[in-house]
Amino acid sequence: MSELFDAVDALLASRATLPPPGERKRLRAAHGLTIDEVATALKVRRATVSGWESGKTEPRPPERDAYARLLDKLAELYPAAPADTAPPAPDAAVPATFAATPAPAEARPPATAEASEAAVMTATENTQTAPAPVAADPAAAPRPARTARTSSTSRRPGAKKAVPAGTRAGGADPRFENGPLAVVDVDDEGKVLAYCTGGLVLDVPAKSIPALVDWTLTEAKLGAPKLSGPGKDADPLIVLTEAALERYGLPVTLTEEEKHAGRLPEGHKVIKQLTRAEWRLTKRGFGPWARIYRPATGSERACVQLCIPSWNALDTRHWGTAAQLPPAELARVLGVYASRVMTPRGSTAVTGLELMTALHPPTRASEPDADGKRHSEHNPGSLGKDAIDPMNWPPCEVPDGHPVLKDLPRFHVRGPAEKLFEEAYDWARPMTDAECTLRFLVGIDVNMAFAAGANGLHVGLGEATHVTNPMFDPKLPGSWLVDLSHVDLSRVKVGKEWVELDGSLLPSPFTPKGERPEGPAWYATPTVAYAVELGYEVRPVEAWVRYDNGRYLDGWYNRLRDAYLATMADLGVDADLSPGDFLAAMDGYKARDPELAIVTSAIKATVKGGLGKLRERPRGEGWRPGEPWRALSRPTWRPDIRAAVISRTRINLHRKVVKHAAFTGQYPIAILSDCVVYAADGTSPLDFLPYREGKPLPGGFKLGINPGLVKHEGTQSVLWGEEVRDKFNAPELNLARYIKDGTVTDVDNGE
User: Fold this and answer.
1) Residue 104 buriedness (CB in 10 A; 0-12 / 13-18 / 19+)
2) Is residue 314 a contact partner of residue 322, using CB atoms and an 8 Å limit?
3) DSSP bridge partners of 671
4) Which one of 62, 230, 260, 599 counts the least CB within 10 Å of its CB?
5) Nearest-CA neighbor of 441 among 674, 711, 678?
6) 85, HSE (Cβ side, Cα atoms, 13 Å)
7) Per-residue pLDDT at 5
8) Cα torsion for 104, 105, 107, 110, to the nearest 10°?
9) Which of 477, 470, 473 is nearest to 543 (CA)?
10) Tens-digit pLDDT profile for residues 364-404
């Protein structure tokens, strides 16, 4: 008889009622449970629980009964909101927290740092650089559309099943109505699905990689409009999950040899399939970011970008846990980034560089000639289509091993008078007796400091001209050989007034290590201009200047700034918060939406990586010193632009440090890049930043989320700082490196 009862119980369990997929996740999250914890308790895989929550699959006995029991208990603890106060359906108005587009320029708060800084820009964007909207901004929904699901195969509101490509309604550009990208996965029933932005799921009929490329270009309606008038539309991006890799005959992970090469071997069967189908690969080959194309015919491009997360396409340093996200969530993360920055073209560094070109294409169509034909011509304000000849580079601006230096002795080490060395700060000093009597060390960090340094900066667009004994011109981009050792920080001009400071407690603004120069050295224009601003005469010996110049990075800055501000606003950190409210909003902001927090990290990495890519070094490939390397063939290989941005960023920070010292008598203890540490009697930046009636010191540090403003980096005790320095016998250990969490793993080596 008990066997009959067990059979009846099993029947009941097989029909156990479950809440909708979106409610399942809400209940789990309300109790603070992770997907892994639920999976462990029910003895299933993490992906299985993720599928249940997304509606992609439904639980079966015996797990279904246990899962239903868990959800029933959680529903008792966390009842759903009443119907009249429930959030709107996905087709209804979008919550303001996840607004699809930034506010109009006139409604936005000032997007620069302080007006007292040089070359401040207005917040109004050039309408030519604004991207046309796609069918659905991935930021418009708090999550992929799970709450409106009506079946186990589709995430599109109201759909009954995964839909063929081309069935989605509306869109500003019908060519790209399904968004910029798709994450291709295989479900438990063996169906290949493409998860697009906005919650749409498409059926993928392709049986091979060549067929997938064809489908993407002919049916999927993926891609994004160009960012600038003479530019090119963004190629569609296809992200392949591990299941998709297996389906299409690709390895889930690369071998050590393949990782080292960064690609599959040329003889791999999938590469042979592509060759037979007359598809080509770029010089990067079939690696984590593969580009598959056919030569363009006229204005028509045929190119698809692949992204393979399990091959480390999404570096965890910049994309966090994105590679482990379920397909719909990954589509959301990459989609938000694509809509606000651009469709990824590779690493964040590669994308940062590509964004510069997308906003300033090298060529444009000319006016019609006598026959009415247009021709390709140089696009003013761009870097052009041709790289600078390696042998025409100023020797002072290039890194060691560059072809222009090939005649130097093999082991020659260039000094400051031979080499431009504009880098970010890595400086620290011992604490004074007075500082040791205070209780805390408080770190503040400049938001998107290098983006702010690029804002309004005049940089060279073409080749440099050599000049001897020049008159210094602060408006002329270039590199200047000048002696700044006479600048005395004990007496400097702040604004129009001379002030007395304790120069021994300040870093020099002219060297990354904060050491006072000992003689002539090469500096970028912003560094020399700051010496003049401090009240000192400068007499350059020689210079390499660029008469063809402009504010090349303005559009780049604007787009990345707006992307960052919009995403932080989605996370509850608005640009118009009071100092106290801002600090409160920043506390734990990443936990409010971990997926959008990944996007903010990627945006910041795009800034730093893009600037770093301007001076890309050799990357193996059998290179030898004195020989050219691949990056030198790019018009965007511009170490002079990188140096100018870093110079201005370091100077911007030093200016604030000086104004703070002149007004408060407080001096920094350590500076690392964009992080500054001060001693204080309290744990908050408000315990040492001089706010009066809610207003900051003009030209000093100001709390806020805009680029150039500062946030709280971390607080440790003064005792911690002294103990760490004593433990490693390093009185000038850079505490800014460890202020965030207080963990010091080894002696500071400056790396």
Assistant:
1) exposed
2) yes
3) 427, 676
4) 260
5) 678
6) 4
7) 57
8) 150
9) 470
10) 988 888 888 888 899 999 999 999 999 999 999 999 999 99
What are residue 181's DSSP bridge partners? 237
Signed CA dihedral, 25, 29, 31, 36: sign only: positive
CA pair distance 377, 381, nearest whole angstrom: 12
Q: Is the dihedral of CA 174, 179, 184, 190 positive or negative?
A: negative
What is the predicted pLDDT for the residue at 516? Answer: 97
Buried b (16+ CB within 10 A) or exposed e, 480-496: bbbbbeebebeebebee
* Closest among 536, 543, 520, 568 to 705, alpha carbons compared: 568
Sequence-ordered list of residues with C-beta below 8 angstroms from that of 444, at least 6 positions apart, any chain:
675, 676, 678, 685, 689, 701, 710, 711, 712, 713
Please list, residue by residue across 608-646, b when 16 or more beta carbons sit within 10 angstroms of its beta carbon and e when fewer do. bbbbbbbbbebeeeeeeeeebbebbebebbbbbbbbbbb
Q: What is the distance of C-alpha 544 from the center of its chain?
A: 32
pLDDT of residue 69: 86
Q: How far apart are CA 121 and CA 551, in angstroms?
A: 11
Taking phi first (over 0 means left), then psi (-120 to 50 degrees means alpha), and beta for anything else, what does residue 39 get? alpha
Confidence band of 164 (pLDDT split at 50, 70, 90):
low
Q: How many CB atoms lie within 10 A of CB 743?
A: 7
CA distances from 722 to 435, 719, 736 (A): 11, 5, 13
- For residue 63, the one-letter residue type is E
- CA dist 234 and 343 (Å) reads 7
- Residue 423: pLDDT above 70? yes
In a 3-state reduction of DSSP, which class is residue 506? coil
107 vs 99: CA distance, rounded Å: 14
